[in-house]
Each structure stands twice: as C-alpha cells, then as structure tokens.
Specification:
- The protein is built from one helix and 13 strands.
- Strands 1, 2, 5, 6, 8, 9 and 11 form a seven-stranded mixed β-sheet that branches. Strands 10-7-12-4-3-13 form a six-stranded mixed β-sheet, with no helix packed on it.
- The chain has 186 residues and is mainly beta.
- The protein has one helix at residues 63-66; strands spanning 3-5, 14-16, 32-36, 39-43, 55-57, 61-62, 70-81, 90-95, 102-103, 120-127, 135-140, 149-157, 168-169.
- The chain has a single domain (3-169), classed as Jelly Rolls (Sandwich).
- β3 and β4 form a beta hairpin.
Length: 186
C-alpha cells in the first residue's frame, strides 16, 4: 500500500515508509497556522496528489499540541471529479516513535464520498482526553481506492496554543516559533 505525504508546498506528494519515515521528515510536509475570529486552526497548502490511489497522510501532529484535549479534525475537499470511487476512509493515528502508527479509536468515516462533495469540509470530533502520545497524524483513503482527480487540505483545530512550537504562521513560510506566539523575533 502506497503512503503519500504532503511534502513541500506545490508538491504532488512524497512517499512515506511506515517504520522508517519520521513525522518530522520533509515527506510529511508542514502545518500552517491560521486564525479566524480568534480561533487558531492548522491546515497546509492545497494538495494535488500525483498518485490518487494512495493513502494520503497529513503533516505530523505533535502530542503536546493535542494531548488530553478534544479536538476537531477534518478535510476540505477543494476539488474532486471523475469516475473514481465514492468512498474514502478517514482516521487519526497515533505513534510513540513518530514512525510506527496505529489507529486511535475507530475510523472517523468509512465513506467521505469526495467526488460528490467537492468544495466541502468534513469535520469530526476526536476525544484525546485519555491520550498522551508523542505523535498523531490524519489519513485519508486508507482503503486506497482511486480518487481520480482530487485536491484537498487536512484540518486540525483545538490545538493547545501554549505548545504550538514548530507551527508556521500564515504567510511566513517559516516553522520557527517561540512558545507558539508569533514568529521568532531573533
């Protein structure tokens, strides 16, 4: 099964090898922090994967950002068309080492139906109240159906802003933050 990370902005995807590729590796890509009415959420540049029958993997979510909290995760299907499948699974996974992953709870959705939901946002509540793992990630299309033509963005909100170290600010293109409040002033 092919795993495809977001990679660098404008990339059409970078292969991820479970057990080898760490959540901090460039293949995963980076989150960008946005604020809307004072609420911070994470997303990334619109992703247009070259391999549409792979399992799509989000950038790594650091445990201190979300441990012990209820968060909202999702996917914004920007565009989708074609004759591919009408089902794509969506889940959150956790890891102790940033390389080996296991599903957290049950699958969030077994049928996102991306081709019928272009320009739609799918959101799910995830209760991590009892979790204290170092890493998490989102995955879409774990059953590796051919999604044909799709562009999308993963989403995360409910991040503990006191621990948002390493999240780039909208428009800065940098991942250098101190305590999660603004760009590094040095």
């Amino acid at each position: 099964m092919a795993l495809l990370g977001i990679g660098s902005p404008g990339s059409t995807g970078t292969a991820i090898v479970d057990g080898t590729t760490h959540a901090l590796d460039g293949a995963y890509g980076n989150w960008i922090s946005y604020k809307e009415t004072g609420i911070m959420y994470l997303s990334h540049a619109t992703f247009d994967p070259a391999t549409t029958d792979a399992e799509m993997i989000s950038p790594g979510i650091r445990g201190p950002w979300v441990n012990g909290q209820k968060i909202v995760v999702g996917v914004h299907i920007v565009a989708a068309e074609g004759t591919g499948t009408s089902a794509a699974g969506f889940q959150i996974e956790g890891s102790l080492d940033g390389k080996t992953w296991v599903r957290i709870g049950s699958e969030l959705s077994a049928d996102l139906n991306p081709e019928a939901a272009a320009n739609a946002i799918h959101l799910f509540t995830v209760d991590l109240s009892d979790y204290t793992l170092p890493w998490y990630r989102l995955t879409m299309n774990d059953d590796t159906h051919d999604l044909d033509v799709i562009t999308f963005k993963f989403l995360v909100t409910g991040v503990n802003s006191d621990y948002a170290e390493g999240v780039a600010l909208e428009g800065t293109g940098t991942s250098s933050l101190i305590g999660g409040i603004g760009a590094d002033p040095s």
